[in-house]
Structure formats: structure tokens, C-alpha cells
């Protein structure tokens, strides 16, 4: 927005209007996406919430990590992660092991059951995405994947909610 010279009026350019409209649409659609993701996570494996699925995925990708690392990576409160970790431990999906380099530190790892559940849920999620995107042209899929990767690569600040 720019102020007209010698005036208190704010002039909104067509580009600024288009940007605002696009941002509003993105925010609304991502909110819908998040709601659907949470709902579908419960249908795919009733005991595995979207947060739990995400934590298991991170543990698989990282080869294991501390609970504090999970909290930092996802910008979550330590108590939130602690509750999720406790539930995953009770379900025997993760286990704690001493860090071989520092025996004061416990590292979280997937159990065999955790790997199996994660693989099942991942395949179910991918099948759902494949079905939903089946009619999309390949170029649209590639562009969508690039945009999501770019969006999610943006540096995250602790105070950020989006």
C-alpha cells in the first residue's frame, strides 16, 4: 500500500490486492488441509494421532533423537512432546536407549512395531494422496510438490504459528 502524495489516503495497487487475496486463499485452504489431515490420521490408525505419526516419521528419518530435539524441531512445548512420547512408549512404538557417546542422554528410537505401524500409515496416506491427485497432470503435481517444499523450507521462528 502506498500513500498518495500530499494525501492521507492509502492507495492499494492491483498487485497488493492480488497478494492479499492469494494469502487469504492460501490460509483458508491450508486450514482445511490441516483439518482433513487430522481427521484422516485418526481413520487410518485410530491410536495414532497426526502428531504421533509426525514424531514417528521424524524418528525414522533421523535414526533416533532426544525428546528435546523433537520439541525444538517442531517448535513444540517440551511438555507436549513429553506426553506424546509417553503415549508412544506405552503403545510400544518407541523406546529409549542410552546415547553411546553420553550415557546421561536417552535417545528415542522406533521399535519394530513402530516401524510397522509407520509403514502401514504412510502407505495408507500415500494411497489417499494418489487417489485425490489421480486426475492432476504431471506438471501440476511437480509444481505443487515444489511449492510445498519451498513453503516448508522457510526458516521457522519460535513464535511462528503458520
Please tell me how large the radius of gyration is: 21 Å
What can be said about the biggest beta sheet?
2 strands, antiparallel
Roughly how much helix do the residues carry, as a percent range? 55-70%
Strand order, biggest sheet? 1-2
Cα end-to-end separation = 23 Å
Low-confidence stretches: none
The global form is extended
Q: Structural class, from secondary structure content?
A: mainly alpha
Helix count, DSSP H or I runs of 4 or more residues: 6
The averaged pLDDT comes out at: 86
Strand tally: 4
Q: Could you spell the SSE succession in H and E letters?
A: EEHHHHEEHH
Strand content: 5-15%
Map the helices and strands.
Elements lengths: L1 E2 L6 E2 L2 H31 L5 H13 L4 H8 L3 H13 L3 E6 L2 E9 L1 H22 L4 H16 L9
Antiparallel strand pairs: 1-2, 3-4
Helix pairs in contact: 2-5, 3-4
Structure description:
By secondary structure, the chain is mainly alpha-helical. The protein is 64% helix and 12% strand. Strands 1-2 form a two-stranded antiparallel ribbon. A two-stranded antiparallel ribbon has the order 3-4. α2 packs across α5.
Amino acid at each position: 500500500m502506498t500513500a498518495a502524495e500530499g494525501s492521507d489516503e492509502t492507495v492499494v495497487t492491483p498487485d497488493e490486492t492480488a497478494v492479499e487475496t492469494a494469502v487469504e486463499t492460501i490460509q483458508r485452504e491450508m486450514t482445511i488441509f490441516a483439518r482433513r489431515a487430522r481427521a484422516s490420521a485418526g481413520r487410518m490408525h485410530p491410536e495414532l494421532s497426526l502428531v504421533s505419526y509426525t514424531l514417528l516419521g521424524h524418528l525414522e528419518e533421523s535414526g533416533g533423537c532426544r525428546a528435546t530435539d523433537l520439541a525444538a524441531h517442531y517448535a513444540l512445548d517440551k511438555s507436549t512432546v513429553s506426553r506424546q512420547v509417553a503415549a508412544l512408549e506405552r503403545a510400544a512404538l518407541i523406546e529409549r536407549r542410552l546415547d553411546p557417546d553420553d550415557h546421561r542422554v536417552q535417545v528415542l528410537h522406533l521399535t519394530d512395531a513402530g516401524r510397522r505401524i509407520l509403514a502401514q500409515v504412510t502407505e495408507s496416506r500415500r494411497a489417499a494422496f494418489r487417489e485425490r491427485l489421480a486426475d492432476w497432470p504431471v506438471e501440476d503435481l511437480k509444481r505443487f510438490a515444489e511449492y510445498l517444499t519451498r513453503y516448508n523450507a522457510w526458516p521457522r521462528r519460535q513464535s511462528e504459528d503458520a
